[in-house]
Amino acid sequence: MKITLPVAAEKLRAADKILITAHINPDGDAIGSTLALLQILRSMGKNAEIYIDDKIPKNFSVMPFAEEIRQPREYEKFDADLLVILDTAPDRIGKIKDLTGAPILNIDHHITNKNEEGDLYIDANAAATCEIIFYLCRELSAEITKNVAVCLYTGIATDTGFFNYSNTRPSTFRAAAALVEAGVEPNLISEQLEKRTFREVQIMSAALQTTKLFYGGKVVGMFVDRELYSQVDTTEGLIDLIRVIDSADVAFLITEKEKNICRVSMRSKGVEVSEIAKRLGGGGHVRAAGCTIYQNMDIAKMTLIRTIGEFMIENGYLRPIDFENREEVDLAAMNFENEQS
Ligand code: AMP
Ligand code: MN
Ligand code: MN
Fold first, then answer.
1. Fewest CB within 10 angstroms: 179, 226, 301, 327, which?
2. pTM of the complete model beyond 0.85
3. Whose CA is nearest to atom 10 of ligand 1?
4. Which residues of the chain fall below pLDDT 50?
5. DSSP assignment of 66-103, as one string?
6. Ligand 1 centroid, distance to 32 Cα (angstroms)
């Protein structure tokens, strides 16, 4: 059931033992929002813990209290009276559902979140879940300490591409300003998040070499195979290297993380990539979305390029006259790849 922010605050006040989680492949917003809420709830005297069913990328592991984030073990149980799910619907939290059967309070900003399990507070206009947590903090009259502010700022900064993307709105800056007043030093956070080892920069260059154009340059893709993936801590930021290409409306990155598990990230300048991701079982935002394709790289690549092509034709981003059936879309995708690479 959809609820308002004051009702969400009430649910938190009423609970004592609270399990907080966020999506797998955790990003700055997922990690920042869980860490901020952990501190807020503890300051209210609650017994709160964070479990995330994935590893935490090392650039985020310096955030305050990050060492408290636990990864669930198989068959582990956690006795809680509320499960708070942040920055995703309950379908992307991995094994957390096996940890507890507690009622769900879901707080998110993804327009594709259609969760009907438990209570949902959704603000699809919020730039980040951390922006929502900032306003929730006010609702709870909780103090925004410097440590809380650092976590919230990190989530807002990463989800807005450091206040560059179209999700950046006046209230995003207002929240960020208050967080800087609470002690955040934006330059230090940027430095920490940008940090890469020499090897990682070399890998970036190898990843860039895989870049190819499709559909006359309107789509650009990058491909990180298992070999390349095994050498990096995270693929975060790689897609930003190619989404700048002037001809491209859609940029995508396919990472084969494990055999037949391909993670897809998409960015766009207007094309509703959340809709494309949904067709492949994922979701996200209009201009930033993702999904997972359970196939090898070659099949995932074909499936994704075809789905992007079909969506773009149906919605007038590509001329249908050139692509009358699936085979032609495949062919066009392949041809453009060959022509442009
Ligand atoms: P990413 O490319 O991983 O940065 O993801 C872009 C956006 O899409 C983020 O807001 C994600 O939370 C969302 N997203 C990514 N993968 C999925 C998925 N499988 N289902 C729903 N949302 C997703
Ligand atoms: Mn996220
Ligand atoms: Mn987010």
1. 327
2. yes
3. 284
4. 328, 338-341
5. GGG-B-PPTT-----SEEEEESS-GGGSTTHHHH--PP
6. 16
